[in-house]
Amino acid sequence: MSAQECITAACLQNLFPNVSKYSPDGHFGSKFVTVVVTGGSENQISFEAYQVSNVAMSLQRANILLPTYDAPELGYIRDTTKEQFVPDVFYSSKDKYGNTVTNIGRPLPVEYLLIDMPVAFPIDPTFTFALQSLPSNKLFPIENRQEMGQTQNFEAFANYLSAVGPTNLRTCLSNFHVLAWLAGQVDLPLNANAGSFDELLKAVKADACFGGKSEAQSLVARWAASSSQWATMRTMADSLLGSKFLFIFSVGLSCGAAKKKIPPA
């Protein structure tokens, strides 16, 4: 990780401190982990997880740790100014003779601030994204693709819900893009401000953590059966698709009648 990435990680860890009743101020460290995804020489991706130390969090909180211009692996401790006193920060290293020497942190190698974290994947992963077996025109659109002609709206949601089918409701409501779209809506019965939406997120999280249940036994299915807001959403989707089908059907009948030859009287 570069110095700038370490500072960003420290900022995020400071935003999400770990609650500890044994700490005088009620917090100690953080559980926030930064995962770096990189590509390999064999066209494979690898994952490396890191945290920055509590010292790095303190340096960032005090706004005295800076990145360097020409060496991404080096940070720099601010100099003292009239507006801010900056204490000297030291680190230990080995010189060419093997002796331990103390150096001032100008510059400061970021390897002294990083902590390697284990990263792994479950043996039986639970995927929460859209079914890739569906036709591309039935998948729920991904965010920020309006220029590609893919717009997230209620019609796209209704088409996706119809394509997934009522027996795969957990698949539909576990779709990250669907949840992100619903969270940003204000005019629909089910949105981030609705209490039922928080219950849906808890059900999705529980089903993802404790898999193995059938579709009918999933917590998402139970939530859907008891949510009046979801029932309204289903009714709206069915009405939209039903009216669209009737319109196409009526247009087809009109075209067929126009092509039919009318015998002379």
TrEMBL record:
InterPro entries: Npl4, NPL4_C. Residues 1-234 form the Nuclear pore localisation protein NPL4 C-terminal domain. GO terms for biological process: ubiquitin-dependent protein catabolic process. GO terms for molecular function: ubiquitin binding; ubiquitin protein ligase binding. It comes from the Eukaryota. One of its GO terms (cellular component) is nucleus. PANTHER family: NUCLEAR PROTEIN LOCALIZATION 4, NUCLEAR PROTEIN LOCALIZATION PROTEIN 4 HOMOLOG. This is Nuclear pore localisation protein NPL4 C-terminal domain-containing protein. It comes from Dibothriocephalus latus.
